[in-house]
Structures are given as structure tokens and as C-alpha cells.
């Protein structure tokens, strides 16, 4: 410990020196863009070093060739020798054996040491020989178990010091193409996903220019994970739920599971695409007026312009391109008529030319002021005249009004409401729906529900922006969050089993490179879609090309509680085994019964008991939806959640109320599986009796 303390002191001294240097440099204002970029980089580095003061060093590797490496939250260079850093960043390739070396595959290492620190003080070391004398399943078992046994704070912490082998594999996996990570409850899927983001941003710094999107199941969940990435030094992250992803549109009402399932189906992508295509005008003779004269662009030409404008473009982008082509066609038509007039003039109709010239230059002040007439001496339009004429046509409000009348600007909200509220339109553009399903869709209120958000996103994308959307903002994350069509460098989806096909489409639009990490547990799926395998869940979005990884060890839930989950999983219809728990808490799960009238008082009493037992930590209550309101009123100071709301969260102790009430909910056994696996120490159940009967 004394030896490690010396090195930690040296690393902090070095960090303090670097911070002082950075402070001084940042105080000098930048003169130009390069200077600004340099200042920004220095400010980021300063932030990274400041945040690294917890866990500046957490590990050491002793190689067989006697090289010693220390691993920490960030890299710290030594004063003199750049090639021999004091600390290497946990994400650097050289740090990898810290997570993956085993006695069977020691990767040139003789020993791994976990160093526990509290601020600037070393508080413990755990050594793990890699020569085969201490083979175990876990990496740094002492440090890991200490971390897992700690009281919960309501905020997820970093796990860079104790990442396990199978987790490290996922963190550093190839990021080209989608990766789906299946893991049971508490296997560290969220931990892995967030550390992967930090790893990718470190390894591919260019990703920071596009940002990374983290999608979670609820705002409560996003709140729970907020501090992990900043603590790992990463800030180029936008976090959202599928409901909050589209700027300017939010969920205004609840909806039934049945309708949510119907509206979540992938068929809507095609339906909306057909509907949006139907809004494009059909080719006709296009009548335009210029300077009092009528011009007709023939149907044939209009059709050609339409075909090239619409290919691969959104409705509004195609409209703008079509408009540009019309400006050219009208310019040509005017020039053509001028030539005709010229020909007629040659036959002696000079007065006609004079009339035409007057017409063409009437409102051209520039031409008038420099004394030209808009035609050259022969009366023929020069290239310059044509360009000027084209520019005037492009800026002309009369031409714009004709085009707008023919190819009108469309409002996404209006169009979506129109389609969803009209059985005839639905019959035409979404023929896959049954009559009964169409009726249900049409019968929904106009306010947006959760399943409308991906439909809105899809249609808004098909219609496209009227003006190019270039949101300003100092920070990338603000710009990205404000722009619906922002393209991210990488997207992480947590609790990915819940996404509907339409929500997956929404994800794919934001990441055409398909650099996506989706983590989830198909056995915890509670959403209304009908997917029971990952192939079903992501097939529509990813096709056949995606990789899958598995996490098999449960770090959160103790052995005593995991023992209850096997039958629950079977009842949920899963063929999977629950993950293996790595630790026992020493507390057996217990059950008590209470009658309906005494429920609130008994819950308050038990929560008091649990809060005392797990003082300094957290206690949570999970109950059927119908009981939440009354229980929240009785227990205002603890989280009282449905199984769905508890997704991804954890506490030291859970009080589970009326488990049969949870299994009676749709996909209720999956819900109970979630509910049982939220605690790190103790699970208590309160069963409710109805009058003289036994508990349900
Ligand atoms: N390598 C690790 N080191 C320290 N703690 C870990 C590690 N892996 C997981 N944990 C802890 O285990 C708990 C569960 O992790 P996490 O929430 O990531 O699991 P999950 O698979 O997302 O669970 P669920 O599906 O139930 O939401 C968290 O407290 C997390 O900090």
C-alpha cells in the first residue's frame, strides 16, 4: 500500500501541475479559429483530469518481463519520458490485459493488482496472481464484491476499475454494424453500454464531432445514469427516451396496449412512405404568368422534371428541386418566345419586338440604369440576360405562389392527423390493417400518444424540412438534441427489447452508419409488441447483418433472490435460464400477508424497518399499477413504481407488494421477473388477502 501511495501521490502532483498549466493557457484569449479549437481541447482535458480525481489509479499490471503499468480513469504522462506514462487510460489497448488476462491466458502478465483509493489515499490492494495459483471466475474479486456490496445511492456509478472479462469483450467490440447484447437482469448491460460509449469516444475521437445518442426506457432511468459518462470524462452525449427524441413533439395522453401494438408495427413505414408519395402532384400542363404573358410548361416536361426531383428526396426537398427546374424551364420558354418574336421581326414585325423588349426590362432596374435593354443589338438574349432573367424568376413572388399552390408546403402534424383520422386514406395507404384495426386507429383522440411519436418522426422525415435546419448552439449536444434529423456517430439503446419496429426505424434514421449497440433482456420485454426473440425484435431494422453477444453473470441480485426467478421465467414463456448470481447477501427473501384494509399501514411499517436496516442506502416499492396511487400517498418518500417503471433501476432492498396483481397485468410474468431482480441485498413480499380468503 505504501508503494502504491507513493505512485498515487506522484500522479496527483503531476495532475496538479498539468491543471495549473492548462489554467494559465486557457486564461489567454484565443486569436483565431485554430486558437479557439486548441482552447476547447485544453478545456476538455482540464475537465477530464478534474473528474478523474476519484480513481486516478485503480489497477496495476506486472508483466512477466517486469514491466509495470498502472491503470486509471485517465492517462497521466510522466514529467520527462512520454513513452513511459505514470498512468495509462483504462481504454488504451495496453490496459486490456487488466480486464482479460487469466491464469489460462495470462497475456504476458504475472500479476494483476486492484488498488482501492479514497480521494488521494490508498485504502487497500488486492493481488491476483496470473500464474495459475489463484484461478477464479471473477477478475479482481475483492474489489468487485466490495463495489457490489456498497449501499445504493440512486445514481449509477462507474465500474471501470472492476469490469469483468465478458463485459470488457462487449465494451471493446467492433463498432461497425449493430451489436445486440443479451443479458439477464443485473448482468451489467447498462454498465457495459455506457463504458462502451466512453471507450469508443476515446478510441475514435472523431466520434465526438457527431456525438453519441443514449436511448433509455424512462426519464427516471436517464436520471439514474446521468453521472456515469461525465465521470468517465465524456460529454458529447445526448440522452433521450423514444418519447422525447423528436424535438417539439411530446406524449400528451396514454393509450391502450392494443392500439400501441398496432401503431408500432413496421408496416407504417411503408404506409407513410406511400402516403407522402401520394401528396406529390401528378404531371399536368403547368401554367405560369410572367410579365403579363402566359407560358405553359407541357405535361411531358413537367413529368420529366418531377421524376428527377422526387428520386430519393423528401417531399419538400423534391418540391424545391422541382421549383428550380421550373425556373429554368420558364426562362427557356421566355427565351424561346423571344426567338420566335425575333423570327417574326425578321419578317417585318418590329413593333412586336419593341413590345417584348419593353416587357422583359420593365422591372429590371439594373438593366435600365446601365442603359441596356435586355437584348443585344440583334434583339437576341445573351447568356448574361438569361441568367438575370432566371434570377428574377427565381425571386418572383408570383411564380413562387403558383408553385406553392401546385406543390404546397405540408405540415407534418396536419398530415399525420389527416391520415390517422380517415378510414378511407388508411384503407388505401395501409391496406395491411384489418377493418377492425383501422376503426381503432381512426377512433383514437387527436392528441399524441407514445406510439404516434415514431409515426410523426417517419412522416416528418419523408416530408423533409421546408428550410434547411441548422440549429445554432455553443455545444454539440444542444444542436443535436434540437435537430430532428441529426446524424449521430454511434447510438446506444438500453432496454432495447422494448422498442417497437417503428421505434427501431426512428433509431436507424439517426445512425445510417448502423454503428449501434443495443443492450437488453428479451425476457424482460413488457412492451405491447409481440417479439419474443431478438431476431423478431430487430430483424425489421437490422436485416440479417448484426452481431450478438451474451452476458451471463448477475452482479446485482444476490443468490438468495435469484433462486426464486427460475419458475417465474418459465411462466413468462422463456426457454432461457436466469443468469448466475455471483454473490450471496446472507438475507433470505421473506413473505408476509396483510388484508386489504391494513395494506398501507403495513407497507409504511415495513418500509420504516427496511430503511433502518439499509440506512445510507435505498429502498424501493414495486406494486401493480392499480395500487400505485394509494401507495404513493402513504409512502411519499420512497420510490413506488410499477414493474415497467422500475426497469433498469435498483435498490438495496425491494418491498414487492401483491405479486399476483403484477402477474395479472399484460406480460405480467415478465414484469414480476423485473420486479424480483431490482434489489442488491434484500427482497420482502407483502401478499394481500381479500377478506377471509387466502392470498391470491
Ligand atoms: N463490473 C462491474 N463492476 C462493478 N459493478 C458492476 C459491474 N457490473 C455490473 N455492476 C453493477 O451491477 C448492477 C447491475 O448492473 P446494470 O444495471 O448495468 O445491469 P443490467 O444488466 O442493465 O440490469 P437490468 O437488465 O436488470 O436493468 C449495477 O449496480 C452495476 O453498477
TrEMBL record:
The keyword Hydrolase applies. ATP binds at residues 183-190. Residues 162-558 form the UvrD-like helicase ATP-binding domain. Keywords: ATP-binding, Helicase, Hydrolase, Nucleotide-binding. InterPro entries: DNA_helicase_UvrD/REP, P-loop_NTPase, UvrD-like_ATP-bd. Pfam families: AAA_19. It comes from the Bacteria. This is AAA family ATPase.
Amino acid at each position: 500500500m505504501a508503494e502504491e501511495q507513493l505512485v498515487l501521490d506522484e500522479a496527483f502532483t503531476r495532475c496538479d501541475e498539468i491543471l495549473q498549466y492548462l489554467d494559465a493557457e486557457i486564461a489567454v484569449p484565443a486569436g483565431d479559429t485554430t486558437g479557439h479549437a486548441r482552447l476547447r481541447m485544453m478545456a476538455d482535458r482540464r475537465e477530464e483530469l478534474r473528474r478523474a480525481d476519484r480513481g486516478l489509479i485503480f489497477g496495476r499490471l506486472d508483466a512477466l518481463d517486469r514491466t509495470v503499468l498502472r491503470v486509471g480513469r485517465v492517462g497521466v504522462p510522466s514529467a520527462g519520458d512520454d513513452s513511459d506514462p505514470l498512468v495509462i487510460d483504462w481504454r488504451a489497448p495496453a490496459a486490456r490485459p487488466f480486464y482479460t488476462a487469466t491464469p489460462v491466458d495470462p497475456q504476458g502478465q504475472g500479476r494483476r493488482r486492484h488498488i482501492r483509493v479514497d480521494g488521494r489515499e490508498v485504502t487497500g490492494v488486492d493481488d491476483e496472481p496470473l500464474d495459475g495459483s489463484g484461478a477464479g471466475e471473477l477478475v479482481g474479486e475483492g474489489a468487485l464484491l466490495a463495489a457490489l456490496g456498497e449501499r445504493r445511492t440512486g445514481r449509477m456509478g462507474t465500474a471501470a476499475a472492476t469490469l469483468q472479462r465478458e463485459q470488457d469483450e462487449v465494451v471493446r467490440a467492433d463498432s461497425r454494424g449493430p451489436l445486440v447484447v443479451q443479458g439477464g437482469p443485473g448482468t451489467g448491460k447498462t454498465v457495459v453500454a455506457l463504458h462502451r460509449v466512453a471507450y469508443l469516444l476515446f478510441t475514435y475521437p472523431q466520434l465526438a464531432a457527431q456525438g453519441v445518442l443514449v436511448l433509455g426506457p424512462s426519464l427516471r432511468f436517464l436520471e439514474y445514469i446521468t453521472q456515469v459518462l461525465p465521470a468517465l470524462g465524456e460529454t458529447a452525449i445526448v440522452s433521450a427516451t423514444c418519447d422525447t427524441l423528436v424535438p417539439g413533439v411530446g406524449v400528451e395522453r396514454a393509450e391502450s396496449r392494443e392500439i400501441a401494438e398496432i401503431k408500432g408495427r413496421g408496416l407504417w413505414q411503408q404506409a407513410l412512405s406511400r402516403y407522402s408519395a401520394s401528396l406529390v402532384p401528378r404531371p399536368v400542363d403547368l401554367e405560369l404568368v410572367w410579365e403579363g404573358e402566359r407560358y405553359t410548361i407541357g405535361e411531358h416536361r413537367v413529368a420529366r422534371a418531377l421524376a428527377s426531383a422526387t428520386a430519393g428526396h423528401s417531399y419538400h426537398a423534391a418540391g424545391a428541386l422541382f421549383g428550380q427546374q421550373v425556373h429554368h424551364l420558364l426562362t427557356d420558354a421566355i427565351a424561346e418566345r423571344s426567338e420566335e418574336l425575333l423570327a417574326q421581326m425578321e419578317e417585318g414585325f418590329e413593333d412586336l419586338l419593341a413590345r417584348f423588349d419593353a416587357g422583359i426590362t420593365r422591372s429590371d432596374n439594373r438593366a435600365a440604369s446601365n442603359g441596356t435593354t435586355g437584348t443585344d443589338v440583334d434583339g437576341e438574349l445573351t447568356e448574361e440576360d438569361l441568367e438575370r432573367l432566371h434570377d428574377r424568376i427565381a425571386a418572383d413572388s408570383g411564380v413562387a405562389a403558383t408553385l406553392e399552390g401546385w406543390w404546397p408546403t405540408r405540415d407534418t402534424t396536419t398530415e399525420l392527423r389527416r391520415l390517422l383520422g380517415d378510414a378511407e386514406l388508411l384503407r388505401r395507404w395501409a391496406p395491411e390493417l384489418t377493418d377492425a384495426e383501422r376503426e381503432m386507429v381512426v377512433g383514437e383522440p387527436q392528441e399524441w400518444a407514445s406510439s404516434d411519436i415514431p409515426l410523426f418522426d417517419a412522416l416528418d422525415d419523408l416530408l423533409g424540412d421546408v428550410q434547411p435546419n441548422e440549429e445554432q448552439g455553443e455545444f454539440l449536444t444542444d444542436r443535436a438534441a434540437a435537430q430532428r434529423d441529426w446524424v449521430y456517430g454511434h447510438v446506444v439503446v438500453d432496454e432495447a427489447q422494448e422498442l417497437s419496429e417503428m421505434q427501431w426505424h426512428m433509431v436507424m434514421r439517426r445512425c445510417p452508419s448502423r454503428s449501434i449497440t443495443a443492450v437488453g433482456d428479451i425476457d424482460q420485454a413488457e412492451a405491447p409488441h409481440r417479439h419474443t426473440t431478438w431476431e423478431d425484435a430487430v430483424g425489421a431494422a437490422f436485416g440479417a447483418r448484426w452481431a450478438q453477444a451474451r452476458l451471463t453473470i448477475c452482479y446485482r441480485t444476490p443468490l438468495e433472490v435469484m433462486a426464486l426467478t427460475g419458475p417465474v421465467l418459465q411462466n413468462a414463456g422463456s426457454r432461457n435460464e436466469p443468469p448466475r448470481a455471483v454473490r450471496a447477501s446472507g438475507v433470505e427473501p421473506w413473505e408476509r400477508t396483510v388484508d386489504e384494509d391494513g395494506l398501507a399501514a403495513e407497507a409504511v411499517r415495513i418500509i420504516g424497518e427496511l430503511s433502518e436496516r439499509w440506512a445510507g442506502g435505498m429502498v424501493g416499492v414495486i406494486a401493480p399499477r392499480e395500487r400505485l396511487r394509494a401507495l404513493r400517498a402513504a409512502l411519499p418518500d420512497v420510490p413506488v413504481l410499477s414493474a415497467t417503471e422500475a426497469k433498469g433501476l435498483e435498490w438495496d432492498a425491494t418491498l414487492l407488494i401483491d405479486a399476483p396483481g403484477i402477474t395479472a397485468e399484460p406480460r405480467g410474468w415478465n414484469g414480476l421477473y423485473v420486479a424480483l431482480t431490482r434489489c442488491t441485498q434484500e427482497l420482502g413480499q407483502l401478499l394481500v388477502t381479500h377478506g377471509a380468503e387466502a392470498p391470491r
